[in-house]
Amino acid sequence: MSFDPDSEATKRLFFRQVEAAAKVRVYPAVAGIAIPDTDITLSGLFVRNGRQRLIATAAHGIDGLSAQSPIHIFSRSNPLSYGHRILQLERDEDNDVALLQLGDDAADSLRAEWWDLSSATSRCDPPQLIGYMVGFPASRNADGVVGNRPVTLMKPFSYFTNVSKRASPSPGSLVVRDPDPELDILMEISMDRTLDDHTGEFFPEFDPKGMSGAGVFLLSGMRDKQLWSGEFVLAGIQSGHLKKAELLRATRIELVKQLAESSWPSA
């Protein structure tokens, strides 16, 4: 089955097939992040580098935080998790990615699945052109109360996209640096690729604010006129929105792996 089949029913069937598999394989590794005493929320991914359990996200979303800073981290299994402190925080500001580590007790409390970085790659052979991500767009946040404490309720959101074949946008885009195809994956913003988790219907529009830090997966094994293999390949971390070009930017996962290996060398 191809990603752009003639039949609308076939397209919906493909999306739902991927979504059903992602609920089991991807969602348990998806992190929601809220910065205390602000309205800033963003996405992340629970990853494993050897023995170390880390949270990958976009560096610009946690600007100003450091080791011992308070932070709220949510998982699918623990959506009301509050009051953590960062044990170690490492950034690659040039490429807009960060890795943070919580203490073992806090990591245990999240009851998350931790995606093994050793299997992650953005250099699929042959190249894969279908992208998929799950994150927490700010437009879907809601205010709530647990006990007497006001909380932010973050709802996960899945998004399908095409890896862009366009040349890099012209300089001046509002990102950390100009896009570089060797360092970044550029993805088209397609308004009919967003699914509501509850109704299974498509959203008419997509606002990526809050999706920064989400894991970007390539759907390995997708070929024209063939079925999807069922594999998700972690390829990057979503780190920018090039609004005028209608593109999303993801930092290639190899840069995240380099940051992990240099910061936790004995892992």
Q: How does this structure look, described?
A:
The chain has 267 residues and is mainly β. The protein has two domains: 8-27 and 119-253, Thrombin, subunit H (Beta Barrel), CATH 2.40.10; 28-115, Beta Barrel (Thrombin, subunit H). The chain has helices at residues 8-25, 104-110, 253-263, and strands spanning 30-34, 41-49, 52-57, 70-74, 84-92, 97-102, 115-116, 130-135, 142-146, 149-153, 157-162, 184-188, 194-195, 215-220, 231-242, 247-252. The strands form three sheets. A seven-stranded antiparallel β-sheet has the order 12-16-15-14-8-11-13. The protein has a six-stranded antiparallel barrel with strand order 1-2-3-6-5-4. A hairpin with a 2-residue loop joins strand 2 and strand 3 (52-57).
Described by its quaternary structure, the protein is single chain
Protein structure class? mainly beta
Please write the CATH class name of the largest domain: Mainly Beta
CATH topology annotation of the largest domain: Thrombin, subunit H
Encode the helix/strand succession as letters. HEEEEEEHEEEEEEEEEEH
Largest sheet: 7 strands, antiparallel
Helical residue percent band? 10-25%
Inertia-based shape = globular
